[in-house]
Amino acid sequence: MLNLKGIFGKSYTIVPCTLDDIEPHFAKIQDTIESHTVAEFKQKMTDAVNDESAFMLSDNSCYLYYLNYAPRCAMGIALYGKGVPNEMLSLFYGIFKGIDTHTLKIDFHMHAGKTVSEYKSIVTEASIRRQIIPGQPLVVKVDQLLGKLSTIYEKRGVVWDG
Amino acid sequence: MITKREILEVINDLIAAEKGHPVTMDGMLSDAELDSLGVLMLMATLDAEFPILTATGEDMGKEDMELRNISIRDLVVKCKLSVMSDAKP
Questions:
Q1: How close, in Å, is residue B31 to chain A by CA atoms?
Q2: Which one, A161, B15, B29, B55, has least CB within 10 Å?
Q3: pTM score, two decimals?
């Protein structure tokens, strides 16, 4: 568990996802998952929970599941935070500043119906350009994102207390 | 005293950092085509320099959504007024 403040000073608590969270979390995004991949998708969510790389805000407003495929590289499995950008940024910031400080890069493959424009502020310019090539992931460079958020925290005088 | 043109430059620098499109004084913030995270980071950074937001941290997510529909001219004027009111004794 980790407590932190968002960039506007509101307090949040990040907790690990459990196996019991998988079904309700999957229900929030099931419309974007192709039916023939559901079992495989849920297995990856299970693997992420077992690998202790699945986290959520305690108010259940957003979550992130990912799996490391190399010591510093991960594959994003499931991300949800519709309509709560403040919470979403706090989740990313708290996980990678205070809990998992070794992962530097996360690749996300977009599901059907999602567009790069929904995530362009947190992914790399290069990965956005590569979206014209089928199968290319969107890449979040964790150190860049943390650097950007740290600058905003500093400018706003919000102290990291994670 | 910072001019409206200079404030517009600040806004466009912040929009560029979030991979958005430059805006003009006659446009809307939505013309920048930022995602919701980008709008939030833009407004958080802008508000640090020009205290324009009235919402508390708990309400910011909702206010962010409404700010997408603000005109750039209104945003610039809000920034300008925030600095002017700060200068009052």
A1: 13
A2: A161
A3: 0.88
